[in-house]
């Protein structure tokens, strides 16, 4: 089995940092260590759906914003929309 690949040097002064492409896969090495693997997959194209003639307003949405405090995700803002009214809540630290 013969594997074909292509290497591209990232830094001419550092030969251990390079990109390697094998078929649809790309490997990025930095200082001899594998930094990133990229895989390319073929996917099916999405088909369009039939749109409904009747539009419904019976839905609800919610958005939650968080921040990292002492290595714990803590919510600080919440927004809610029930199709008629919107509500926002904010927590100050």
Task: Tag the structure with descriptive keywords.
single chain, 93 residues, mainly beta, 3-stranded antiparallel beta sheet, 7 strands, 0% helix
Task: Describe this structure as you would to a colleague.
The protein has 93 residues and is mostly beta strands. Among the domains are: 6-39, no CATH class; 61-90, no CATH class. 0% of the residues lie in helices and 56% in strands. It contains no helices and 7 strands. The chain has strands at 6-11, 14-22, 25-30, 33-39, 61-69, 72-81, 86-90. A 4-stranded antiparallel sheet has the order 1-2-3-4, with no helix packed on it. The protein has a 3-stranded antiparallel sheet with strand order 5-6-7, with no helix packed on it. Strand 1 and strand 2 (14-22) form a beta hairpin. It is flat and about 60 Å long.
Portion in beta strands: over 45%
Rg, alpha carbons:
25 Å
Q: What's the total helix number? A: 0
The total strand number stands at 7
Give the overall shape, derived from the CA principal axes. flat
What's the order of the H and E elements? EEEEEEE
Strand arrangement in the largest pleated sheet:
1-2-3-4
Structural class: mainly beta
- Uncertain segments are none
Q: In this structure, how is the largest beta sheet organized? A: 4 strands, antiparallel
Helical content class: under 10%
Average predicted local confidence, pLDDT: 88
Quote the distance from N terminus to C terminus.
61 Å
């Amino acid at each position: 089995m013969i594997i074909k690949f292509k290497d591209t040097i990232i830094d001419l002064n550092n030969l251990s940092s390079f990109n390697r492409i094998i078929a649809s896969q790309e490997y990025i090495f930095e200082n001899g260590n594998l930094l990133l693997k990229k895989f390319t997959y073929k996917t099916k194209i999405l088909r369009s759906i039939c749109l409904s003639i009747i539009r419904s307003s019976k839905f609800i949405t919610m958005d939650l914003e968080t921040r990292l405090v002492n290595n714990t995700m803590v919510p600080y803002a919440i927004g809610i929309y029930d199709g008629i009214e919107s509500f926002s809540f904010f927590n100050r630290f």
